[in-house]
Write a structure and sequence with these properties.
This protein is an all-alpha fold and 158 residues long. It has one domain. Helices cover 49% and strands 3% of the residues. It contains 6 helices and 2 strands, in the order αααβαβαα. The protein has a two-stranded antiparallel ribbon with strand order 1-2. 13% of the residues are buried. About 22% of the residues have low confidence. The chain binds calcium ion (3 copies). One calcium ion (CA) binds next to loops.
Length: 158
């Protein structure tokens, strides 16, 4: 029964390799960091209207406008903090004139600003890598240590 310790050693080795890979997170050598998260990839593809693999603000803007209309439950053309509740972003960041409501133009202006921030290489488009990084930045202030899709969980085989 020499096989068992060998197998155990091999298994623990493969676990430590997996753990090492998980700790490194998104490696720049992989094709697309967005591919690591199917939900994020799907979101990116939904926004990428012409399917060229990068986002322009012209593509993102109609999606954001549709999002605004969806959030505006009472269809009065402005968002209240209650209507805004499920957004991960702080209401106050959008309410530029501090009237307690977020208008369509405020909503789009803030998203355009975030789009520019996401475009870290300033080429006018947001690549999947830039998109992923921007989403991660958004998430990080509130509970960054928890992986939403369980990527941090160790691989356990028994
Ligand atoms: Ca595009
Ligand atoms: Ca409203
Ligand atoms: Ca870019």
């Amino acid at each position: 029964m020499k096989i068992i310790p060998v197998a155990a050693a091999a298994l623990s080795l493969s676990i430590s390799i997996c753990a090492g890979a998980a700790e490194r997170g998104t490696s720049p050598s992989t094709a697309s960091p967005a591919a690591a998260n199917p939900a994020m990839r799907e979101r990116f593809h939904r926004l990428d209207a012409n399917g060229d693999g990068v986002l322009t603000w012209d593509e993102a803007r109609p999606a954001r406008a549709a999002e605004f209309r969806r959030l505006d439950e009472n269809h009065d053309g402005v968002l209240t903090p209650e209507e805004f509740a499920d957004r991960a972003l702080p209401f106050a960041a959008f309410d530029a004139n501090h009237d307690g409501k977020v208008s369509m133009s405020e909503y789009l202006a803030k998203h355009q600003e975030m789009f520019r921030q996401a475009d870290t290489d300033r080429d006018g488009t947001v690549s999947p890598a830039e998109f992923t990084k921007a989403q991660q930045r958004l998430r990080s202030p509130s509970g960054s240590s928890k992986a939403p899709n369980g990527t941090a969980a160790p691989v356990r085989r028994q």
